[in-house]
Structure formats: C-alpha cells, structure tokens
Amino acid sequence: MKIWKYILGSIILLLSTFSLYTLFVQKKYGEITFAQIIDNKKFNATSFEAKKDRLPIIKIKDTVLLDAPTIKQFPELPRGCEVTSLAMLLQYKGINVGKMELAEKIPKDTTPLIKEGSNISWGHPNDGFIGDMYSYNNPGYGVYHLPIKKLAEEYMPGKVVDLTGSEFNELKTYLSLGSPVWVITNATYNSLPDSAFETWQTPRGDVNITYRLHSVLITGYDDKYVYFNDPLNGGKNKRVSTDNFIAAWEQLGRQAVTYY
C-alpha cells in the first residue's frame, strides 16, 4: 500500500510540475508548438519524455514572407496546379525538379468515369490524380494531399510532414521555421456555395468535390493577409484576407503538406 501511495504521489507531483512549466513557457513565449513538429503527432507525455532532449520550442512569428520561386502551370499543365505548387516547394528547398517530372511521377487513379443520370462514379483524389492533367479536351479533376505527400517523400525522405486536418496556426509554425506550405484551396480563395460541389461514388467511398479546386504554395502571413505563390498565373506572394483564405482551405479539408 505504501508503495502505491508513493507512486501516486510521484505522478501527481510530476503532473503539477509539468503544468507549471507549461504555463511559464506560454507566458514567456506566447503561442508555441512543441516537437510534434518533428513527427506530426499530437503532444502527449510519452512522446515528450521520449524526445524531450531534442524538442524545440517555436515561437510563431508575427509576420513571415518567404522568397519562394514562382512557376506557371500553363500551358503544359492546365490541371497541374498541385504538382506545380509542389515543384515550387521543392525548388525552394534546393531540389532541382520541375513540374513536368512531378506530373509524370504523381500517382494516378485510373478508375473509369461513369455517368448514369445525375450519379457520377470516378476515382478518389487521395488515391491518385483523376483524369487528364495535360488537356481540357478530356475529363479531369486533380489530386489531394496523400499522393502529393508520397511524391514529396521521394525527394525529401524522412522530412515531409502532412499537416492535413491541423489548425492554421500549425501552418504558421512551419512558415515561422522557414518552410513554405503546399495547400488545397479553390480558385476564388473564399468559401464556395453548396451548389459548387457535387458527390462522386468512388472505390473508397463517396467524396464531395468542386471543379473550382486549386492548389497554391503559402509563403507567408501577417495580421491581415495570407500570402502565396499562385501557379495559375505565376503570381508571387499574392495576398488574400486571412479569414477568406482559411474559409476556403477548411472547406476543402484543411489539406496541407510541408517539410521539417
């Protein structure tokens, strides 16, 4: 019984000490993110104890604006915004790879398109690129974060981080570290009406899609705007109000990929 009381007391003391430390850090450094930056896992005591000797404390900067290269998707890749944005990210990292190489390598979902009245069956964008990336003369759509992450890992093994589903502040953390962030949004950079979406039946289940799908590379932010390189026209550090940009990003599933 005494042993169990000792163990329980030790646990309570440890938790109390850690809580006081956390409050101290938050008061001193403001908004922070711990070493889930390293492995993209939510903070917990086990991971903290295992990695505490190499966990950075990162202060989210008030403003960031990175000088990433700009690449246009046109004329070669009318539907290639996703791989073009990835090419910008990789080139910023110093990796010499172009959009056409990435377009060839990106996984493809070859599920046939079937239309029966208002019902549409096709592939899933998280299984690979859907349709024709090179021409509007044939049906096509795009690709989501999982194939992009898989392709990025070929060039940056062990360094790619999939932030999909995270809060926008997680993206700010990586930007504060100097890493631009690949994201899925839409071509209006604002939330879309329900009428802009349709439902497909796919081998992995139903998926809601919009043909206004777009991908950009986030390069910075400040207190009013999010800045990004736009493959649609080669725009560098374009800006959109933070609220509008986040609304569009969240509507498409908070998809984001970067590197550590």
Description:
The protein is of the alpha+beta class. The strands form four sheets. Strands 3, 8, 9, 12, 13, 14 and 15 form a seven-stranded antiparallel sheet that branches. A four-stranded mixed sheet has the order 5-6-10-11, with no helix packed on it. α4 crosses α5. It has helices at 2-29, 36-39, 45-51, 81-92, 99-105, 145-155, 168-176, 242-251, and strands at 32-33, 58-59, 64-65, 108-109, 114-116, 119-121, 129-130, 160-162, 181-186, 198-201, 207-209, 213-221, 225-230, 235-241, 256-259. The chain starts with a helix and ends with a strand. It folds into two domains: 2-59, no CATH class; 64-259, Cathepsin B, Chain A. This is C39 family peptidase. Keywords: Membrane, Transmembrane, Transmembrane helix. Residues 66-231 form the Peptidase C39-like domain. The chain crosses the membrane at residues 6-24.
Helix content bin: 25-40%
**Which secondary-structure class do the elements indicate?**
alpha+beta
The average pLDDT score comes to: 85
Largest sheet: 7 strands, antiparallel
Tell me the Rg in angstroms: 21 Å
How many helix segments? 8
Keywords: Membrane, Transmembrane, Transmembrane helix
Transmembrane segments: 6-24
Organism: Robertmurraya beringensis
Protein name: C39 family peptidase
Could you write a compact summary of the structure shown?
This is C39 family peptidase. The chain is of the alpha+beta class and 260 residues long.
Q: How are the elements arranged and paired?
A:
Blueprint: H1 2-29, E1 32-33, H2 36-39, H3 45-51, E2 58-59, E3 64-65, H4 81-92, H5 99-105, E4 108-109, E5 114-116, E6 119-121, E7 129-130, H6 145-155, E8 160-162, H7 168-176, E9 181-186, E10 198-201, E11 207-209, E12 213-221, E13 225-230, E14 235-241, H8 242-251, E15 256-259
Parallel strand pairs: 4-7, 6-10
Antiparallel strand pairs: 1-2, 3-12, 5-6, 8-15, 9-12, 9-15, 10-11, 12-13, 13-14
